[in-house]
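User: Some background: our group keeps a shared notebook of sequences we're curious about, and every so often someone picks one and asks for a predicted structure to add to the entry. Today it's my turn. The entry only has the sequence so far, pasted here. Could you supply the structure so I can complete it?
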Amino acid sequence: MNEMWPLDGHRVEIPELVKDEETGKPFAHCRICELDLQSPPKPYMVEKVIRRNKELGLNEVLFGYAICLDCAGDMRSQISKESMLAIQQFISQRVDFQARIMEVFEQDFPDVDRHLSTCMITGNSIKEEGEYQIAALCEGDSLVLGLWPYVVSSTAIAELSGLLSNETLGHMDDFYGQNFGLPPEWADLFKEKPVFWL
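Assistant: Of course. Here's the predicted structure to add to the notebook entry:
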């Protein structure tokens, strides 16, 4: 599991943007299996969908959750081989992961804010986007730096979602329906712009 989500590297306090917006604290339980993520501390993924009001300069969290790495692995395994290959090709053409990781490990104080304010794929500021998604790897009350955290803009998500197979989109629909009971208007949002599962 750690090969998929490496836990070594720099750790910092979890930024407010990555915390549970309802409590203002690190997420306490896995959304799927209800595993206690804090006692004792266990690694977990956080994903959020945020809408930005450009006029007011405010962010509204539309959706946020944490899942343990076992559940994250189960979710990832439901991505079809066709979709996974398309995603990997799409991202490898746009993201220099080696440079990203070197930046984190070569700095005593990596710029976490920059990673949370710039789309990993387009390089554009999220201030230019109406919606964006965040993915982060955490353990207890620490944010693990490396491949994560990253932000993906709605522009990149729209392009990425067009690469996903019907099988993968069906698994995503099932996931949100079973675990969150989303109303129809929210289901449409995630069908068009699925939360980034990688």
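Suggested note for the entry: The chain has a mean pLDDT of 81. The two ends are 13 Å apart (CA to CA).
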